[in-house]
Write a structure and sequence with these properties.
Blueprint: E1 18-19, E2 26-27, H1 30-40, E3 48-49, E4 56-57, H2 60-71, E5 84-85
Antiparallel strand pairs: 1-2, 3-4, 3-5
C-alpha cells in the first residue's frame, strides 16, 4: 500500500512544484526555492539590521519582509542607504 500526497499551493500547477532537498518544503517556483535556500540554509556571510527596531536578519529578503510586515513600510519608503550590513 502507498499514499499519494498532492500538495496544493495557490496559483501553482502541481507539475511545477519545487521541493527543498534539505528540509522538504515545497515551493511554487525555482526562484522561490533559491531564495528559500539562501534565507534558511546558506552559510551566513552578512547580517542585515532593521534601522527601525535594530532586529538582525541573515538575508536582505528576510529584512525586507520584516520591515513590510511589522513596520508597515514598503522597501522604497525607507532610505536603504541607512540599512546596516555587518
Amino acid at each position: 500500500m502507498f499514499f499519494v500526497c498532492l500538495v496544493y499551493i495557490a496559483g501553482c500547477s502541481p507539475k511545477k512544484l519545487f521541493s527543498c532537498q534539505l528540509c522538504g518544503k515545497v515551493l511554487c517556483s525555482k526562484a522561490s526555492l533559491k531564495r528559500h535556500i539562501a534565507d534558511k540554509h546558506a552559510e551566513r556571510q552578512e547580517e542585515y539590521r532593521c534601522i527601525i527596531c535594530e532586529r538582525v536578519y541573515c538575508s536582505r529578503n528576510s529584512l525586507m519582509t520584516h520591515i513590510y510586515t511589522y513596520h508597515k513600510s514598503r522597501p522604497g519608503e525607507l532610505d536603504m542607504k541607512d540599512v546596516k550590513f555587518f
